[in-house]
Q: What sequence folds into this?
């Protein structure tokens, strides 16, 4: 029943859409950033931030503020808002919101596995994990010694299970493979997310495919540039590129063969700039991701 | 300091004088050498001080740059990047070792950094593969530069302290030689000379006195001999005349003496 979705939209998504619009207006503006630039001390920053939405989170902090405290509290605000929205969401929105956290979950899993390999304390590692990526059995990651155990004991119950089928080949948790494992997982996650977004169709598919395609292309170029001069072979590089996006498939062939930054950049910078210029700033679905468009442009990093 | 009147307690002999003179020569030469050493050390000290000032200024700049590079890396690769990197490290690949250097006779410690090839930091090259890789490498380079500056500053400061100690000791020795040892030796030498002169004068005096005695003795003997010779002559003359002067003389003399038999 196309065209009549607006009739039933408010039943499922009305409240959350309102919340998201509210949050969007709470984002820091250019004027706020200018003010922050003028600050001389951390107390000035706290004062400016208390006039924004971040105020309640910072006002209880004792006076000698530390930069990490400010960052923690702001992240806490993000996490609280996200959790609130997750509670209020119904299917399929709740699955969509959960997909957003899988990226952080992958990072946390990789962090704990690396830390365990080097015999660090589990509690310390847990404190360093990103709050959006926590899941219940995360502490038991520390007992795993290789991939099979890791999968069997812990990950099979988490949403990350299907992504591991790509890495489940019997490689041990070697250090080099940690980064490759992380990127392979992320690739599988992006592809899964893409497929999920195509199912509902309509606005979701349109907007999300653009965004995810851009993310996939950005990652491909980043991986290429960052792996120039390292031990990563061309085949390995090829395996880390996602199976969708503007650069798929011919662009990936070219990228895999690149040995120099200028080669990659001049061909594909043009294409990617086209995507970013398209006006897709509507907040209805993506508000909680809270990434300003300028950050997506920082792919040269 | 108990003043210039100090001298060593020695027996004032000629041998001692020679010994003291040799010691004075040694002390003078040692004083000149130590003064030269102190001057050389002071020159080194000044150059190190200048280098420390400039290195400290550049260190401030470089540390600020490396902290900012860390912030950029965090921005590009996610807040977790610090923890990710820290957890994936087994042992340090950049290490510091120390060695001794000999500057103007003083052993100064020097630190230098070197990369430990066995620590395998090639694995770290893949950090931030999908985002932030370049920033992470830039941050790494900035911190390596910061470490270089810090190591150099550490060397300079330890050399500074050691040189300071050495200069103090050398100056102490120079002053001691100049103000205590040499005056003492000079006083001892002059004392010995004085004593020797006095002994010589005594000897001279004694000699002269004895000479005087001997001369008088000889004169007296000469006088006595002359008188005796005169008396002998007179006796001879009187004997010729029939009287003994000596006996007449004796009678007169005897008459002047109290005789019991004579009652006037």
A:
């Amino acid at each position: 029943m196309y065209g009549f979705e607006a009739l039933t939209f408010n039943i499922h998504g009305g409240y959350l859409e309102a919340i998201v619009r509210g949050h969007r207006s709470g984002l820091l503006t250019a004027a706020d950033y200018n003010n922050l630039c003028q600050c001389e001390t951390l107390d000035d920053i706290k004062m400016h931030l208390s006039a924004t939405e971040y105020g309640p989170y910072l006002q209880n902090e004792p006076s000698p503020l530390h930069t990490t405290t400010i960052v923690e509290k702001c992240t806490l605000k993000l996490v609280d808002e996200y959790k609130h929205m997750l509670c209020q969401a119904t299917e399929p929105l709740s699955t969509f919101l959960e997909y957003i956290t899988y990226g952080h979950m992958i990072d946390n899993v990789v962090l704990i596995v690396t830390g365990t390999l080097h015999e660090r304390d589990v509690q310390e590692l847990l404190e360093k994990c990103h709050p959006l990526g926590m899941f219940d059995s995360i502490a038991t990651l520390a007992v795993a010694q290789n991939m099979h155990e890791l999968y069997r004991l812990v990950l099979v119950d988490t949403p990350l299970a299907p992504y591991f089928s790509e890495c489940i080949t019997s490689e041990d948790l070697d250090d080099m493979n940690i980064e490759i494992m992380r990127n392979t997982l992320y690739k599988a996650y992006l592809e899964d997310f893409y497929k999920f977004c195509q199912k509902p169709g309509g606005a979701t598919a349109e907007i999300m495919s653009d965004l995810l395609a851009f993310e996939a292309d950005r990652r491909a170029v980043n991986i290429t540039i960052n792996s120039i001069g390292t031990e990563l072979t061309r085949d390995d590089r090829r395996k880390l590129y996602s199976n969708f996006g503007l650069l798929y498939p011919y662009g990936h062939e070219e990228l895999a063969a690149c040995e120099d930054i200028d080669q990659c950049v001049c061909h594909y910078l043009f294409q990617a700039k086209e995507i970013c210029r398209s006006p897709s700033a509507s907040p209805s679905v993506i508000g909680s991701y809270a990434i300003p468009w300028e950050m997506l442009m920082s792919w040269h990093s | 300091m108990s003043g210039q009147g100090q001298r060593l307690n020695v027996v004032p002999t000629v041998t001692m004088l020679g010994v003291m003179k040799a010691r004075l020569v040694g002390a003078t030469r040692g004083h000149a050498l130590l003064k030269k050493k102190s001057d050389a050390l002071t020159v080194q000290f000044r150059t190190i001080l200048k280098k420390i000032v400039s290195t400290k200024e550049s260190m401030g700049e470089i540390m600020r740059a490396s902290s900012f590079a860390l912030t950029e890396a965090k921005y590009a690769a996610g807040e977790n990047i610090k923890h990710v990197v820290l957890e994936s490290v087994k042992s340090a690949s950049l290490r510091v070792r120390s060695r001794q250097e000999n500057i103007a006779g003083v052993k100064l410690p020097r630190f230098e950094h070197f990369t430990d090839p066995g620590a395998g930091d090639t694995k770290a090259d893949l950090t931030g593969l999908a985002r932030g890789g370049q920033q992470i490498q830039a941050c790494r380079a900035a911190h390596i530069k910061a470490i270089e500056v810090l190591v150099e500053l550490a060397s300079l400061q330890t050399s500074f302290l050691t040189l300071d100690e050495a200069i103090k000791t050398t100056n102490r020795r120079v002053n001691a030689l100049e103000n205590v040892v040499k005056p003492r030796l000079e006083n001892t030498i002059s004392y010995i000379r004085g004593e020797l002169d006095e002994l010589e004068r005594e000897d001279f005096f004694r000699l002269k006195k004895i000479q005087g005695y001997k001369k008088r003795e000889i004169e007296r003997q000469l006088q006595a001999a002359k008188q005796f010779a005169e008396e002998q002559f007179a006796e001879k003359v009187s004997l010729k005349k029939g009287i003994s002067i000596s006996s007449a003389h004796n009678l007169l003399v005897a008459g002047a003496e109290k005789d019991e038999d004579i009652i006037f």
About this structure: Residues 145 and 173 of chain A are 7 Å apart (CA to CA). The two ends of chain A are 44 Å apart (CA to CA). Chain A touches chain B at residues 71, 75, 107, 110-111, 114-115, 118, 120, 125, 128-130, 175-176, 178-180, 182-183, 186, 219, 222-223, 225-227, 229-232, 240, 298, 300-301 (CB under 8 Å).
